[in-house]
Amino acid sequence: MRISSSRRGIRENRNAGACFKNCKTGPPDHRSFPTGLCTPSNACCTPWNIRLRFLVLIWTQDSGGASVCPVIRRIKSLTHSKFEFTLTPDNTSELADKVLSRKGIVNSFARLKEVNMKYAGILFAILMMAPIATISAAPPNILLIISDDQAWSDYGFMGHPEIRTPNLDRLASEGLLFPYGYVPASLCRPSLATIITGLFPHQHRITGNDPARPAGLNRKDPEYRKLNEQLINRVVQVPTLPRLLAQAGFISFQSGKWWEGHYRRGGFTHGMTHGNPDQSGRHGDEGLKIGREGLQPIFDFIEQAEEKPFFIWYAPFLPHTPHTPPDRLLAKYMTAGRPVDLSRYYAMCEWFDETVGGLLTYLDGHGLEQDTLVLFVTDNGWIQRTPKSVVPSAWNFRFEPKSKRSPNEGGIRTPIILRWPGRVPV
């Protein structure tokens, strides 16, 4: 994922592009990243022979609010393993030494956590994880948990006074929490496409949930289907996390939200979504049953994996509408003076948390906790509309303005959690 701590940070990162202008080396595929690396000493493109590909962008601010140089850490793909970073003036030699050491990643996470506590915003996309000789004899399994339409504030660990999320609270306490994360799009499909590719929407070219429809066309019209097929094909044209992981021996499982046709088009080896428009395939079809109807397909996949490292895409239709929580949960939030729509949304957030608990309990019970990197992020925000909400006269959405579909904090901010016991510091 591509992220910034603020819109100001985004603007300044554009200016920081000058840091890269003198670099003369870099990977052949430069569509998504500046080519090469320039530290203040102009040391470019240090190769690092590991098989980890992810992106972390952090913008820090000093106590006076003035932005300082971005910290950008990029580890490239399997075939072009390069560790790219731009360091702040006060930590260039120290952090460079740590990053390039055998424990560089762990040391860096510890340092970045210290930076983040007050003044840094972070969002990451894990794009590649494979055998990493410098860190572990074997690669970790990866469980990526993606909440769907949930405000950044609507978790116990983020301080919400009413919503109960004990399992995510546990994950946050046992892992590394970054409370100031931002997705690059406040709408499901482009945001998810960024997570799976690591590209900005203007780069993967999936910028909306559906292709623009000429007047008079519906989704069943052959001409519309052709337009949608062109949109789906874009995920085939760029690297995706499952395809990169497959090169390192991983098997992968898609569940939940998935807009890009059959799961194999994204590179998954296993999955739930068929993507057939003749069978109601649009944004997940059979995959949308996960969470709401249990977690057994994921458990079955893990059993089949045996000794192979696995990657799981868990993107349930939760707490997304329809807000139909179990009665036992809804009853907890139905209080005098609280709109029923808000009570339903609160209950949906707890229902999602229960499914996260089911996954964590399974990992614990099968001895997989220590060997699994668990990641959490939300695709986009949501502020529940109620009868008291102030909205424009033509507003037909169930959410408030300045949330989903907007570039405001309510639309693009998300907490980020990473948990890998003994590897990622708490």
Descriptive notes:
The protein contains 12 helices and 11 strands. The strands form 2 sheets. It has a 7-stranded mixed β-sheet. It has a 4-stranded antiparallel β-sheet with strand order 3-2-1-4, sandwiched between helices. Strand 2 (71-75) and strand 3 (83-86) form a beta hairpin. The protein has helices spanning 7-15, 92-99, 104-119, 166-174, 188-197, 201-204, 222-232, 241-246, 296-305, 327-333, 340-365, 409-412; strands at 52-59, 71-75, 83-86, 121-129, 141-147, 176-182, 251-256, 270-271, 310-315, 372-378, 413-419. The longest helix has 26 residues, at 340-365. It is 28% helix and 16% strand. It is of the alpha/beta class.
| Class by SSE composition | alpha/beta
- The sequence of SSEs as H and E is HEEEHHEEHEHHHHEEHEHHEHE
Radius of gyration over all CA atoms, rounded:
21 Å
Q: Which strands sit side by side, in order, in the main sheet?
A: 6-11-10-5-9-7-8
For the sheet with most strands, the description reads: 7 strands, mixed
Spans of 5+ residues with little confidence (pLDDT < 50)?
1-89, 95-136
The overall average pLDDT, rounded, is: 76
List the total number of helices. Answer: 12
Distance between the termini: 22 Å
Overall 3D shape: globular
Record field, number of beta strands: 11
Q: Helix fraction?
A: 25-40%
Describe this protein with a few key phrases:
four-stranded antiparallel sheet, single chain, 16% strand, globular, seven-stranded mixed sheet
List the helices and strands and how they pair.
Blueprint: H1 7-15, E1 52-59, E2 71-75, E3 83-86, H2 92-99, H3 104-119, E4 121-129, E5 141-147, H4 166-174, E6 176-182, H5 188-197, H6 201-204, H7 222-232, H8 241-246, E7 251-256, E8 270-271, H9 296-305, E9 310-315, H10 327-333, H11 340-365, E10 372-378, H12 409-412, E11 413-419
Parallel strand pairs: 5-9, 5-10, 7-8, 7-9
Antiparallel strand pairs: 1-2, 1-4, 2-3, 6-11, 10-11
